[in-house]
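Worked problem 6 (solution included).
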Amino acid sequence: MVLISIASSSEFSALNTSQVIRPLILWIFPNLSEERVATIHFLTRKLAHFSEYAVLGILSARAFASSANDFVQRHWFQVALFLIVCYALLDEFHQSFVPSRTASIYDSAIDVAGGLTALLVFRVWHNRRLVMGR
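Solution. The predicted structure is:
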């Protein structure tokens, strides 16, 4: 969550990330138009939203599924999803106060989708593990 908060700072604004991502894209694909470079940059940033919350989903699922608290352990999926949704909304709220960033409910939706995807994958893995007795 600390890393997500750092990524919400002005250091990771679209303007700043374009200084790294744009040259990399043009190095790999030197003949791309500026429009395509901008599209790839945009998609890369959205993939970062999805990925960072997928990692949060996996980490929170592991923590809550093996919690010493019986309630949390029984309801690990809901607790983890609640954490992901709350933090995604809090993250965008935080960005609304950063001058070089914009808050977007769509980014929160991407965040939640990343976390939910990871939770669903973890649930399948966890259920298979329980069935096999491991």
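Discussion: DSSP finds six helices and no strands in the chain.
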